[in-house]
Amino acid sequence: MNIHYQKPPIIEAIMDFVVTPMVPLEPDQLMAFAQTQSKDYADQSPVSEFTLNIDGQNLGTPTTPSMKVVSYIARDHDENRAFQVRSTGFSYSKLAPYDCWESFFNEGKRIWNLYSNFSNPKSIDRVAVRFINRLDIPLPITDFKDWLQTVPDRARLTTVPHQYDAAISKPARRFESALKSDRSYCATFVNR
User: Fold this and answer.
1) What is the pTM of this model?
2) What is the pLDDT at residue 26?
3) For strand 43-55 and strand 66-75, is the pairing parallel, antiparallel, or unpaired?
């Protein structure tokens, strides 16, 4: 069934494949694959991983950071479609305006098939599809049911702030523990 929405709330649709590579792909191979799609996805950027060792016992001792390219992102001319290739998988994104499932699925599947043939993965470990929606609802709201058919249960939402606080404080605790021990941490940057 081909459903087209006049004003879809979807601001990003994402399909993601995580694979175990038969042989890990090198950055130049990832770039070569991205370039095979340069007709439709001309804007191509490397994604780099920056690693810095933090030794909590010897804070004054200089460390040697390292940076390496781990994937490539390719975007179309309008910057509303993009794919990312990495040694461990593939992602395809469609930004607003979202048309329909079929066009999103068919383009993602087309590039996935090319990537899969190119990389020859040993196994597919995860397949995920996500949709990020934006609902513009004027305030004040007297009842969510005026806008949504299914609404969150307020009783179940009372635990969310505690879960949210735990999620926020976890990275801070990890950084604090890194100062007390020798650990490596990674940050990912897109070079544009």
Assistant:
1) 0.70
2) 94
3) antiparallel
Closest C-alpha to 17, from 119, 99, 163: 119
Q: Which residue has the tokens 């599947």?
A: 109
60-74, 108-122, 141-155 — most confident range: 108-122
> What's the Rg (C-alpha) of the chain?
21
What percent of the chain shows pLDDT beyond 70? Answer: 71
Report DSSP state, residue 24. P
Q: What is the rounded (10 degree) CA torsion for 168, 171, 172, 176?
A: 160
140 cis-preceded (ω within 30 degrees of 0): yes
Q: Encoding tokens for residue 102?
A: 């079929």
Strand partners, 13: 94, 131
